[in-house]
Known about the structure:
Low-confidence stretches: 1-14, 18-57
Distance between the termini: 53 Å
Number of domains: 2
CATH topology of the largest domain: Archaeosine Trna-guanine Transglycosylase, Chain: A, domain 4
Strand content: 25-35%
Number of strands: 10
CATH architecture of the largest domain: Roll
Number of helices: 6
CATH class of the largest domain: Mainly Beta
Shape: globular
Amino acid sequence: MAYLCSPSVRVPGYNVLETTCRRRSRFVDRASVNPCQKRSKEWRACISFSYNSVLDEPGIMELPCLPFASAEVFIPTATKTLHLYEARFLALLDEVLGKYNSMFAHIVIERVSNGIEEGVSSFAAKYGCLAQIENVRRMEVGALVSIRGLGRINLAKLTQLEPFLKGTLVPFHDAVHSDAEELDAAVEELKTVLADVQRLQIKLRGSKDELLQTPLANSLQWAENGTVHEKAIGFVPCKAESLSFVPLQPVTSASVSELQVLLQERIWSMEATSTIERLRRVTKFAEHNRSSLAAKVALQSLEF
């Protein structure tokens, strides 16, 4: 865990990105990044970190980092679209595309209740995810950037604060599960439930012209067949671990309370170190989504 520390508690929090979701048609989420208050240039880095997995020296990378608010936990296999328009974030975008094989670190910054030193306001970098840019659309103001989560990361060291964050990253993987048959059985059980969830989502859609590709289907397809740059291979988890993140996507007509539960499940899954435990938990989560969607489909059929 890395800490960003200001020399005075009067200095406002480190500038993070907050994603505001908008609905397109009835399901597709797009995000617009709105930077918070202006950042002080007097920041210094105070590093305190620990690893939940074995340090893989060949897998260490230095990459630019985009900081986000705590509600923006990003997970492997997921996608989202950012609207970057501030000059320093556009500079980060150009550097990521030109020097870093379209990859950067997506990190969540949270205030730490007790500062590292007396009179110091501190912020922890948590829930890191290696992100890959899949598409960039230049706009009159800024750019729309579509990204994909590849794998979990730990921020080992901050190497740059201005004009944007840059840090040394190491992979964070689950512990190896010894019973391959148990893992395979859990994956197959999950896929069966996910097939039902996907079918119900399509039924719940109103227009036949809407795309059949949901975030769930997109995530599942990438987990099974996605490709990455060779330098990112060590950061991408095994297929079973990747699949264990697939159910944690927003489903059609999700309520505010359901999205809050989704966020908590994402946080738990990003901290977990057991693939089999995550598979079991997200299967129950997917079963709940299946029941909720089935009820909504039944209600929809009564309205026609």
